[in-house]
């Protein structure tokens, strides 16, 4: 158990809909990362937050947005869903020592999104 | 953006054999991580490397941070069936930045 919690584990929805994925990082971790993994593909970086603020943005579509709340949990919002958005969405958190990340990334179990 | 290459893309080995895989980049990284992912599950951190030339072991797994800081290697000794999965490398340019992942090496172990 990595200590990173993601909900829901599975989600089936229709095209055009909007969903929210939730992530609770490991206790004390300030950084949260979101990754997308399509079938048999690698992990594509979407976005990173550090202590509530956006730190880095990857190949995240404009239809997608995220935020990190004061209690450090994060949500990834996916809107106007398309068939191609079907994928595993992973959240990961990174420990901190002082003000810097410790350089280790711990993943949750993922949320599997199926768009029909 | 930065890209990582992993080789081989896939490999089939006999149980008991040793395995070697590597990860290369055109960029210099500060940190290298190696993960294993089982189907439908999240990647699990195997080994973290922080210094050029560093050699770190975790049981039957050994990983090295390349001297040029542009590559890393993972070796698995005496493979067993539960070693089956996808192995990903990840690199971080500097502390606090996002991690870039390689495309993975798919390992199959034949009994």
Describe the structure.
The complex is a heterodimer of chains A (116) and B (111). With 116 residues, chain A is mainly beta. Chain A is built from no helices and 11 strands. In chain A, the strands form 2 sheets. In chain A, strands 2, 4, 5, 6, 9, 10 and 11 form a 7-stranded mixed beta sheet that branches. Chain B is 0% helix and 55% strand. The N and C termini of chain B lie far apart (40 Å). At the A-B interface, β4, β5 and β10 of A face β4, β5, β9 and β10 of B.
The largest inter-chain interface, given as chain pair and residues per side, is: A-B, 29 and 26 residues
Q: Give the proportion of residues in helices of chain A.
A: under 10%
- Helical stretch tally of chain A: 0
DSSP strand tally of chain B: 11
Which term fits the overall shape of chain B? Answer: globular
From the alpha carbons, calculate the radius of gyration of chain B and give it in angstroms: 13 Å
- Mean pLDDT level of chain A: 92
- Fraction of residues in β-strands of chain B: over 45%
Summary tags:
heterodimer, A: 116 residues, mainly beta, seven-stranded mixed beta sheet, four-stranded antiparallel beta sheet, 0% helix, globular, B: 111 residues, six-stranded mixed beta sheet, five-stranded antiparallel beta sheet
Helix and strand arrangement:
The complex is a heterodimer of chains A (116) and B (111).
Chain A: E1 5-7, E2 10-13, E3 19-24, E4 31-37, E5 44-50, E6 53-57, E7 64-68, E8 74-78, E9 87-97, E10 100-107, E11 111-115
Parallel strand pairs in A: 2-11
Antiparallel strand pairs in A: 1-3, 3-8, 4-5, 4-9, 5-6, 7-8, 9-10, 9-11
Chain B: E1 4-7, E2 10-14, E3 19-25, E4 31-37, E5 44-49, E6 55-58, E7 61-65, E8 71-76, E9 85-92, E10 99-101, E11 105-110
Parallel strand pairs in B: 2-11
Antiparallel strand pairs in B: 1-3, 3-8, 4-5, 4-9, 6-7, 7-8, 9-10, 9-11
């Amino acid at each position: 158990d990595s200590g990173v919690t993601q909900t829901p584990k599975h989600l089936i929805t229709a095209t055009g809909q909007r969903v929210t994925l939730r992530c609770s990082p490991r206790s004390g971790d300030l950084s949260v990362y979101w990754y997308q993994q399509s079938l048999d593909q690698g992990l594509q970086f979407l976005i990173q937050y550090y202590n509530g603020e956006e730190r880095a943005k990857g190949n995240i579509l404009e239809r997608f947005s995220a935020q990190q709340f004061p209690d450090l949990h994060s949500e990834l919002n996916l809107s106007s869903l398309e068939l191609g958005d079907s994928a595993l969405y992973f959240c990961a958190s990174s420990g901190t020592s002082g003000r810097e990340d410790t350089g280790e990334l711990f993943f949750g179990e993922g949320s599997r999104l199926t768009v029909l | 953006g930065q890209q990582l290459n992993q080789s081989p893309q896939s490999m089939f080995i006999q149980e008991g054999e040793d395995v070697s895989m590597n990860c290369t980049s055109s960029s210099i990284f500060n940190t290298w991580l190696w993960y294993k992912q089982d189907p439908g599950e999240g990647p699990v951190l195997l080994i973290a490397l922080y210094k050029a030339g560093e050699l770190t072991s975790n049981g039957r797994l050994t990983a090295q941070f390349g001297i040029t800081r542009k590559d890393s290697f993972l070796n698995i000794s005496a493979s067993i069936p539960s070693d089956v999965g996808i192995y990903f490398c990840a690199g971080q340019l500097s502390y606090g930045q996002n991690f870039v992942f390689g495309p993975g090496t798919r390992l199959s172990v034949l009994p």
